[in-house]
Amino acid sequence: MTAELVRGQNHPLPQTRLEVRIAAGKPVVAGATLGDDQGKVRSADWVAHPAAPQMPGLEVSRQAAADHRLAVDLGAMPEAVHTVTVLLALPTGVGGPVRFGGLVAPFVAVTDLDGDEIATFTITDLDAESAVTALELYRRNGAWKVRAVGQGYAGGLAAMLHDQGLPEAATLATEINDAVARGMARSLTPPARTNGGDGRVRTATTGGEPTQGASAPGPAAAGATPAPIGAPDPSGADASAARSGGPVNYQHPGRRTTAPTPPPAASQPGPQGQPPRPVAGDAAGWTMEERLYNQVWGMFEDLARSTAAYRSAVDFADSRMEKELDAVLSDPRTRVGPLADAARTEARDKHTRLVEQARAVLDRDLAQLVAEAEVVEPALPPAYARWSSPVWQAYEVPMEMPMALRLGDLHLPERTDLRIPMIVRLPLERGLWVDSGRGGSSDAAMVDSTEMRRLAMESAVAHAARLIAVYPAGEFTVHVIDPAGAGAAALTPLTSTGVLPEAPALGARGVAAVLAKLTQRVDLVQMAVRSGAVDALPRDLDTAQQLLIVNDFPHGFDDRAVNQLRYLADEGPSVGVHLMMVADREDARAYGPVLDPLWRALLRVTPVADDHLADPWVGHAWTFEPSLAPQGSEVLTRVLSQVTRARESYGEHDIAD
Amino acid sequence: MTVNMSKGQAISLQKADGATLTAVRMGLGWQSAPRRGLFGSRTKEVDLDASAVLFADKQPVDVVFFRHLTSDDGSVRHTGDNLVGGAGQGGDDESILVDLQRVPVHIDQIVFTVNSFTGQTFAEVANAFCRLVDETNGQEMARYTLTGGGQYTAQIMAKVHRAGNGWQMTALGTPANGRTFQDLMPSIVPHL
Prior knowledge:
By secondary structure, chain A is of the alpha+beta class. Chain A is built from 13 helices and 21 strands. Chain A has three domains: 3-185, sav2460 like domains (Lipoxygenase-1); 256-263 and 274-383; 424-656, Rossmann fold, CATH 3.40.50.
């Protein structure tokens, strides 16, 4: 029988080889600490965590996950160990939830090796805690028992480890958080799957029996970074849009304002033996926007996987040839002479044949994706389209909240002209860091430092302009900190069109003023959300999403300002305040590692081509190029002027009300 | 037409009209055996896991199982873990989809295995089967029944391998012991 424990209750363990299963609903870090007869953790070696996942008798996962299975062998514990404490912590600095109160109550079960539950414990009543000790396994009179603990720590891992008597608690907590963040920081977030199916299978599946067991979560769903708790979702914000401008919308905010557009004609089968001709919008979704979004991510995944197949085949061919050539060499009878030459030629031919075969398959897949890109690219709405696309010529200020945003293009070396739009969900789950440093790519090394800073600011302005343009009028506000005025030229499209509520902040004074205002806004909204009193927010509070562009960091920043900035990066995204840093990390080196979490919390994009982004499926390095207006084009200025006019007319409307 | 396969039997994976297959699905279904006697209604849940291992010239290259649901190349997809088994009434509880056109050129064999993750032996499993379905039209091509299970916790079910320009399936049905596919590797190798 399973014992359902409550806080403080204990239960005997019939055996020493156990498994601890954890289900938290959102990615959490799981770890374990060993304690001596005083319950004290003697050193960092006594902690199993993602950076050091294995110790005798204990193994934890290397990364944050919604579900964990910890293998425990109590029989293998050293004599000195009297307690094993299983702990959970929320990953920090990655834009996820920051308090257990925002999650469903974590569930922990101790099971035997057959998977039969011995004891279970649901950790209820957690609130602001970001770390919690779930269970304690402890020796009592030569036998082991389990106790439900459920002690939460608002101070996170550091506070918990300190409480367990570990001298270097803070250092170790940082190390653990870093290890987890490293795993998450480099990967792009895969799209949330709206349907139960796992991705798409490109081959026709008509008439197939419904697949049973498809209710289990797919890998993408399980690995997806969660949307920040309390983030205003597009539908909710839709409702506030109706409140602040235009007639009152009586429709339920969760309901779509438009009937789902009929799906486009399914792709027509091509001529005999040919793959079907691709069609734009050939993916699942309620709206054309959503279908195109899913289609682009489908293309992204297909390109990643086809390339993985090709690379794996080439690697295999290489290693096989090497082995065969080695074999020829190692046999003294065949090392020289015509036999050896023949064997070598044969090995090389086999290699060539396999690589050619693999390339043919890759070319077939690439041709199909190129054809798809050719029909998809012109069909993209402004939020997803290149600045050079004709849809920007026909731009009108949208009435509906955007779903996602194009930041740039991605490509792989196998076919550099096949560009996949890099489209990220809105509202942004992470801030952006436009890297003006020259440390990374070879392209960056070609450009001198001043030019690099100019390019970085230019691409930041292009991203910001796109954000302003794709939100309904008055739903997106941009603030700029440009302490030395170095970005003035690049900022012209924003400053000359009047889309900024205030001129870019100059000098240390300006920096302090903008940060103070935004920090206060975050505090206020957070308090209101926590206490469930959103109605009590001041009436003049700007409900729009906020973006703060910071140029030339840390110029003009004192310690207080730096702390406020870190606070905004951590807490801002969940209440609609986002950060775009235009900075060279080297400039801020004087601050040391305290800023590491800040950089990691941001999605790094570059002003020039650079291969630093990893896809979420295979982890190839993709070359990113930002989406910029064509040289000499006035498109940014024209679009932003249109936004200003639309805002003015909405403002008049408000007064008329 | 379903072929009820016996151990060691091989069939060529061709459609009835002679065209080659493009996508197949390996389906697995089971039921936990009912207990007898008092509290007989308290059946014990059995978690069987289907896995597929991709081999290139006897070297394992990739594996698809409940912790890695899609092979890196995208050709083999697991539809997800089922922890309890179904009613066993003919539906598949776990399926692995293989897009034969997308299987990388160097992969020459794909071996399908079933493990009892919860540790019960196949003696405690009823109505277990594995079947191969033509995914393009839903027709069952081959079925292999696992009944008469003995005191072992895993089975190496079948392999799909290249033969000429097409693919062949061979029923293996070798019992083995292990919790996940890793434990089975030594037993798989002789069948390659």
